[in-house]
Amino acid sequence: MENLRLYYKYSLIILIPLLLNACTNTYWGLIENNTNNVINVKLTFINEYGTRFLELKPVKSKESGAWYYEQSSFIITKIDKNLSMVEATNNKGCTISFNRTAIDKNVENHRQKIVIKTQDFIDACGE
Amino acid sequence: MIENSPDYARSMNPSILGIDASFIYQKGLLKLGAPIKLIDDDFKLVSAHEFGHSVLMYVGGISLSWGHKGSTNALLQNVKSSTPGYPEKGKIDLMKYYNTNKREPDASQRVNDSIAMEIDIKRLIWSSEISWKI
Description:
The structure holds 2 protein chains of 2 kinds. By secondary structure, chain A is an alpha+beta fold. Chain A is built from 3 helices and 7 strands; from the N terminus they run αββββββαβα. Chain A is elongated. Chain B is mostly helical. In chain B, about 35% of the residues lie in helices and about 5% in strands. In chain B, strands 1-2 form a two-stranded parallel ribbon. In chain B, helix 2 links the parallel strand 1 and strand 2. The longest helix of chain B is centred in the middle third of the chain and has 30 residues. At the A-B interface, helix 1, strand 1, strand 3 and strand 4 of A face helix 1 and helix 2 of B.
């Protein structure tokens, strides 16, 4: 009987944090470079702690850069809720930027991945 | 274990009641276009972290292990308000949590800069109960 009581006690100790832990999810945010050139990517995050910038390593053509974040599973959006701006610069010095609205539109079909296309640079800077 | 969905599944090592540790390979991230190297590196890093829980549990019990050396609340597992974000540069403690709301790391930073701290290596050596003959 004593053993059973101990079993339930420790089961509760384990189950409670596991259930609560399920409320925080880990994600990899991805920037896919769908152009034919290397791009440099700068991310801007804004939240209650202030504004921060993260420069990813240059992303080669057809490859992806990534960053790591955690957020509550109660937040519906899969893309980092703190991400407010994505700026990408190509080797010709053309910079494109996505604000939060554009980010949300970009990730509509692929969760936490932002795809940057050649057309984005053409739209911004011409050929 | 292999997670085939794009949702990230948490590895764990509660080190209690004989529950086995589970190290999860996030294969499903390929569907999102994540580089295979990122998935491999993440698996190695997380596995090293989970293995470290056995050491921390052995030497310091639940508060040290589940509490991630004071960086999280032991039961809730959430990051404490006093826990800093990932550092701009320098080494990252393999066994601590960091507050990604204060600073997110880029993909390579966690892999390149995470280390088992000296104190934890000493804990590992001590917990092996080696008998030194001088």
